[in-house]
Specification:
Layout lengths: L1 H28 L9 H14 L7 H16 L3 E9 L2 E10 L5 E7 L22 H17 L7 E7 L14 H9 L6 E6 L8 E3 L5 H13 L6 E5 L8 H5 L4 E5 L18 H16 L6
Parallel strand pairs: 3-4, 3-5, 5-8, 6-7
Antiparallel strand pairs: 1-2, 2-4
Length: 301
Amino acid sequence: MKNNRKVFILLIGILLFSISLIFFFIVMNRPLRVPFFDKERAYQDVIAQTGFGPRIPGSDAHQKTIEYIQNELIQSGWEVEIQETEKMGHPIKNIIARRGNHSNWIILGAHYDSRFFADQDPVVSKQTQPVPGANDGASGVAVLLELARVLPKNLNKELWLVFFDAEDQGKIPGWDWILGSRVFVESLKGKPDAVVVIDMIGDADLNIYREILSDQAITASIWNTASRLGYQRNFIDQQKYSIIDDHLPFLESGIHAIDIIDFDYPYWHTTLDTLDKVSPVSLSVVGNTLINWLLDKTIPY
């Protein structure tokens, strides 16, 4: 009788262990819930940045934007570092947010500075004024901040969000393009699997072509994700532009990187790059595409 009882207890123990093991594997292998990208909240981030004024390097608006980005990231539970250094004699402040510890390392980036001079403005007298940078600067930052809020912590990736300083000051005496990303890559230890830079992605008439210099495998995987979500009109499966942008230092260092940019933007480097040109819907198109791409297990490399 005692032996029968021991056998019964042993069988119950094995059954409970088996059920626990099955439950564990179900939980670990179930697909992550796709987060909701709040386009209106992202648009508020554009409003906040443009409300500070043009974020030209060294200005009060520039510093307020750094503090705003840092605070939003900390509130969303990210580990945040301000990389303070210099390039070409200019102070550089890159904002780096980190989460996760995994062999698959992804970096998403955007620049937060705006240009000193609106040298493409159709009104010559305005070409010495600063660019408001609603689309060219604030839109990319807004998408990354909303991703920081909604992405799951158990993403099974090491994810960095990097906000680059001093991207937009080329063809100005004493300056050059993409200074923040250059100094970031120079100091980078290790080699991320993929880098995705977003820039000028808030245009209400959103037309993102495949950038010519970008890594083709990553580009194809993101464009496929966009197509699956029904965004073919916005992510156009054709090459059109070769852009000097923050993905270049990564590519030059042998790191797989791409640039997601809508360069068909008539207000580029003008005083008309203002809040009314940015669409919350466009922010959500790019944000939702990146969320679904990050959740996809078929990311190249």
